[in-house]
Each structure stands twice: as C-alpha cells, then as structure tokens.
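[Q] Does anyone have a clean structure-token version of this?
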Amino acid sequence: LPLLDPAGTRPRPGEARIEVLDVGQGLSVLVRTHSHALLYDAGAGGSGRGPDAGETIVVPSLHALGVRRLDTLLISHGDADHAGGMAAVRREWPRARVLGVEGWAQPGMGLCRDTQAWRWDGVDFRVLHPPPWFPYLKNESSCVLRIEAAGRVALLPGDIGKAVEARLLHLHGPRLHAELLLVPHHGSRSSSSEAFVAGVRPAV
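[A] Here you go.
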C-alpha cells in the first residue's frame, strides 16, 4: 500500500534520494530532497533515428515516482544522449529552471558554472565545473554537480575526460571525496581514470 502513495516516500529534511533512470545509451538522474526535485540530463532523443527517451522513459518514470513539480532541469552538455530528451521534459514541466553550459545553452536557459551553489531542505548542491567563460568543448564542458546530504556526498560528472578529472583533483583534493560516484562518460577509456577514482574514493 505505501507504493500507492509516492508522496509518502519523500526524503526527510536533510536527506536526498538519487535515482538513475534506465535510458539505455545516455543518462538521466533524478535527485529529490524533501520538497524539491532536480533532473540531471534527460536521455537521448530528437535525432529522428530512434525513440525519444525523454518522452518514452523519463517523463513517465518521473510521474510514476510521484514527481509533481520539477524545480530544475540541468543538462550537463549538448550531446544527444544527454540532452535529446530535454524538449519532452520541458513540455511536461514548463516552469522548471533549465541550466546548460556556456556555448551550448539555448535562449531562456541559465548557465551552469562553478560559481553556483544552493541549498534545498538542508541538502547542499554545488557546481564544480566548468568555470565561467570556459569554451564549449562538448564532453569536457560537462557540468559537474556535487550533492551533500547529512555529511554524505554524491558526484555527478557528466562526460568529463581525464584532463578535467585531473583539474578537479588539483583544485579540490580531499574535498572531492564522495560516497557515490557516477562514472564519467559512461566509463569510457578516455575518462574514469584510475587517479580520479582513487581520488574520489567512492563506496559506490
């Protein structure tokens, strides 16, 4: 019976729930606090060569999980497997704040920069990359999001490669430690370096 009442499963103040949606090739991650919701990437779509994951997977999944209001849609970068489902999500939640990276962000979208931080319900969100005026380099421009709740940290790094991984290690050192790490660029050979994984020291 509790499953019939998604609102009853909301995280308590100071807690966050992170759910990675199965969108196949691509990425979409739902982050919820007690009274807020953020979607990090929206899956593939918009290419005309296959189903739109935003429409067929992401939007129905968010409804099934009880998301009534989406506060922020953060698109890590412009690759189709991360941004393709964005239009479907925006149609469903037109009032959501939408963030993208400089050089790719479309009119009406805010910019994702490492000067940004905010707190929802006792949960801290901080952008670690890219810095202001960083040129758009596709994967390397990915918006890296750090989430801290009750002293536990999750790191969502998009598709950054080894060069940006090294930059983050140099800038943040031990502050980069996280219990949960979503591997950069789907575990690509050009990303998820041994040094980065060792520096983050994730449990998951």
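[Q] Thanks! Anything notable?
[A] Helices lie at 53-64, 80-83, 86-92, 162-172, 194-200.
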